[in-house]
Amino acid sequence: MNALVFAPLLLAALLGLRSLRITQQGNSVLVERLGTFNRTLAPGINIVVPFLEKEVSRQSLKERVLDVPPQHCITKDNVKISVDAVIYWQLVDHFKSYYAVLDMEAALVNLVLTQIRSEVGLMDLDQTFSARQAINDRLLQELDAATDPWGIKVTRVELRDILPSPGVVEAMETQMTAERRKRATILDSEGGQEAAINVARGRAEALVLEAEAQGRAVVIEAEATAQQQKLLAEARGQAAATLAEVLRKHPTAAEALRLLLAKDWMTMGEQLAQAKAGSVLMVDPQSPGSLLTALKDLQQQS
């Protein structure tokens, strides 16, 4: 009797435990009743009727990363390259993703590969390297629109590697080497030209400075000569004024002056006699003024 009572209770307990479903936060669970979609379980404890209801799919709502394998593409200028990418996507509608497509990741990879081939075929090789961000943006827009019926959202698409064929790589390296040599030659010539310009400019500045220095030297020398002549003229004027004042105050000093001038005249005469080319000096010894004038003229001639 006890066994008959205990068996139904045990069966009821087992059925009760089997009907309990715990859904974690960030997950989604689909439940079908008799083969038809019934509901999506909320996070927490849920009850599923045994034998009538069945859990058919449990998926995470977190963002996922999907690696896209390398894909051979042909650019607009007929260059063969290999491109791979990485996709960031998130499940937003579990019902659509489960009932709209059989294998979500395989369908997403094939769609991305098709879009990559389409975008790369519209660009030259150089554009695929320089416009990578533009390609990523266009792929994101197209994939987001194409996957909306699948209940997922593509949040980001990144082209990872763009690898040309070995022959193209070798040609690019040759081109880069030639370009570097060209730039080096241009820089070398520009450096030589700039050095020559600097040398010429330095020489011109040196000549200008030298000319300015010579001009200043001539001006200084002329000013010094003028000052010297001015001082000599002033000294001679002062001497003549002093001599005139002495002769005015002391009339007898005129005789002494005549004697001194006569002595100088005799000395000059001796020098004239010893000179190779003879000179004649006509002067009145009694006139000091005429003697001075004659001596001055003789000095200028000699």
TrEMBL record:
Membrane topology: Single-pass membrane protein
UniProt-listed SMART domains: PHB
Keyword Membrane attributed: yes
Alphabetic keyword roster: Membrane, Transmembrane, Transmembrane helix
Entry GO terms, CC: plasma membrane; side of membrane
Family: Belongs to the band 7/mec-2 family.
Protein name: Band 7 domain-containing protein
Source species: Candidatus Synechococcus spongiarum 15L
